[in-house]
Amino acid sequence: MKNAEIAQIFLDIAELLKLKKDNIFKIRAYEKAAHAIEELSVGVEQLVVEGKLKEIPGVGEAINKKIIEMVTTGRLDYYERLKAEFPEREHSAQGKR
Questions:
Q1: CB of 44 closer than 8 Å to CB of 67
Q2: Per-residue pLDDT tens for 38-90?
Q3: Domains detected in the chain
């Protein structure tokens, strides 16, 4: 997975968490990590291999695990479960991509 794809998924997660009225600090963590990933000069895959994900601003243990899951599997179960809670949003979001 490319940096831009991972960053977009984290931004989508932040939006879904806002809809759920989740913890603002959790939302901001996903947004911060997304923006930091967008600005990286190296691929996230390389940071996974080198074990340096936590050097990215905003990447703590939970987000670290999610990045590894996306890089190794090409998907994120947490994101899929969140999207399933908002099926009506999925149809409207498809036109934006």
A1: yes
A2: 999 999 999 999 999 989 988 999 999 999 999 999 999 999 999 999 887 75
A3: 3-94 (1.10.150.110)
